[in-house]
Specification:
Blueprint (H helix, E strand, L loop, with lengths): L1 E5 L2 E5 L1 H13 L6 E9 L5 E9 L5 E4 L7 H4 L19 H20 L2
Amino acid sequence: MKRITLGSGSLVTGDATVAALLDYTTRVAGSENKVTVEITVLEEDGETSLHMLSIGQATQFEVSDVDGVVADEDRLFPVPEIPQVGIKGVVEQNGDAGRTAQDIDAIMAELDEGLGQ
């Protein structure tokens, strides 16, 4: 279990959740991407609830260990879905996809032949 301190508040959540958030903030350090992520948090009364965090390049938080072990931490605190950072490729599903690939292959072959001369 980890405690995340953000500004004037703090949240307690699972180790894997914190690792995913730290990984994301590291990857977006040089970009202007910002996402909203829903994470499961342990409340003071021992119950869990969902909280929304807005995370981007300017996000700063401190992480510390929390005493005590919660049974089934992985089940109680699932790793949030965080959108991919950067360029996203899209796979065409229509009939043009094969022709587009063939066209690109032909252009690359022409470039390869031209570069050898």
